[in-house]
Amino acid sequence: MGRQKKEIKAKEPIRIRERKLANGNISLYLDVYQKGVRKYESLGLYLVPETSPRARTQNKEARQTAEKIKSDRILALQHASVKQWDKVP
Questions:
Q1: Could you read off the pLDDT of 12-67 as tens digits, one per residue?
Q2: DSSP tag of 28
Q3: Other beta carbons less than 10 A from residue 56's beta carbon
Q4: 14: which residues sit within 8 A by CB, 6+ positions away?
Q5: Phi/psi of residue 9, nearest 5 degrees
Q6: Which of 32, 46, 84, 86 could form an S-S bond across to 39 if both were Cys, CB 3.0 to 4.6 Å?
Q7: What are the DSSP calls for 35-46, one per residue?
């Protein structure tokens, strides 16, 4: 019985992070790390406490929107050159 192998996760240059707000909501933002530089981008998307089915669907839609924005930014980074890194949103 050896030890179990860890699941290998692909390192991504962009991650979706969460920040808890004072009013109980959670703000979603992008954490972009490329070529030794870290940038943060607020998405303007918020998760609300899941007290109702409507809140759950709203949170699900917000997460899907955040994932779509993340994939768009990853594609933009892959197609940008080194000189254009400062201009990548």
A1: 889 999 999 999 999 999 999 887 889 999 999 999 999 999 999 999 999 999 99
A2: E
A3: 12
A4: 30, 31, 32, 33, 70, 73, 74, 77
A5: -105, 140
A6: 32
A7: TTEEEEEEEEEE
Amino acid at 49: P
Strand 37-47 with 26-34, pairing:
antiparallel
Q: Report pTM.
A: 0.77
Alpha-carbon distance of 27 to 17, in angstroms, equals 8
- 61 DSSP β-pair partners: none
Tell me the residue ranges of DSSP E strands in the chain: 14-20, 26-34, 37-47
CA distances from 1 to 7, 8, 48, 73 (A): 18, 20, 45, 43
Q: Look up tokens 């917000």; give the residue.
A: 62
Cβ-in-10-Å burial (0-12, 13-18, 19+) of 47 comes to buried
